[in-house]
Amino acid sequence: MSRIDYSKWDHIEISDDEDDTHPNVDTASLFKWRHEARVQRNEEKKKERAKKEAEKKIRAQQIDMLRARKAKLEEEGTLDAKEQLEKVNAELEKLEQYHKDYLKKEAELERFEREHPTWDVDNISKEKHDRTIINPSKKEAPKKEETEEEKVETMSEWFKKNGKKAQKFAHISKQADAHKFLAENLSLVCEHLASYLVIYCVDLAVDPETEADVPVCARQTIMIQYILELAKTLKRDPRECVNAFFARLATADPQYKAAFDDEVAALIARVKKRAQERVAEAQEEMKKQRLGPGGLDPYEVLDSLPAKIKEAFETQNTPMLKEGFAELSPEDAAYHYKRVVDSGLWVPAPGSDLTDAKGDGDDDGADDDGADADDEEEAEADEKTTKDN
């Protein structure tokens, strides 16, 4: 009948299996110190083993280099090469013998350790199987889909409530300060913040005085967009991903940071383009508002008038205006008269025509109406010019 060998259990080092200790010694502390000492010895053994492995690799590389040099010298066959070859052979032989002895001792040591293992509570057993079971989360009831009007209303309310805080975040230039601000205002971390920052970027770009703040605001915008994307990937609430994002950004590799900077640069380019479009749209809208009854722009018409008529309008000189029209040919006078009327520069009295502009008809009615119209147009032009500036 075969017998089971229990000898390997004879020398197990267990730090907390001794109940008989001196009354003046704290048992728990004693067990703790023994365990710490054993862990420290094991760490020193690992470091020593790693050092020996490194030295073994270096010797192997040196042997390979000497062998290669030996082969090269043998091919040359010169007198100088032969002298060097003797030195290389001696060095190679010495190193190979040392390496051979080292491997022999290492093999003996490994065999001894296998035959006389040192057991303790940390290595007496190995984990063969590990499994973690996570209960499925309860599915929340699907939220009611908002209509477009409701979404706009919700976003507008959020903008009014959190606009000042969002603007404060947009101007934070330091990464650590941005992390601290979001950690203290987690309620801001949502889709509405990203939307607000994009719009605010364009607002900054439109105004020449704040255009220099666009890069900082754009960087903050991309930060929020990255946090939202991370939340979608992990299927978590964006507020739970703030710390994870900043930890990743602080230790990110150059490729990740380069991609982040590229996103910021692309957003800045889009913001500048949108700012130019908004300025053009505003100018076009102002132009539409100042168009005369005939659909002409008074500024464009004024610049195209003959010099004397243009000066008469600018100085509100009615006699000079009539003289200017009288000096034109009938065709040119009719052309320019129609344009000043269609642009609103000239508001003729009811029933008046080109002859009133030349001074051939009832001067009083035409002059008074024309002067009044000039006064109104000049005041309106001054007001619009002030707005444009």
UniProtKB/TrEMBL annotation:
Domain Cdc37 Hsp90 binding intervals: 125-286
Q: Which residues form the signal peptide?
A: none
The protein's superkingdom reads Eukaryota
UniProt region (Disordered), positions on chain: 38-58, 345-389
Q: Which residues form the Cdc37 C-terminal domain?
A: 290-384
State one molecular function term (GO).
protein kinase binding
Key words, A-Z: Chaperone, Coiled coil, Cytoplasm
Compositionally biased tracts (Acidic residues) = 361-381
Q: Which SUPFAM superfamilies match?
A: Hsp90 co-chaperone CDC37
Q: Which GO terms describe its cellular component?
A: cytoplasm
Protein's name according to its UniProt entry: Hsp90 chaperone protein kinase-targeting subunit
Species per Swiss-Prot/TrEMBL record: Salpingoeca rosetta (strain ATCC 50818 / BSB-021)
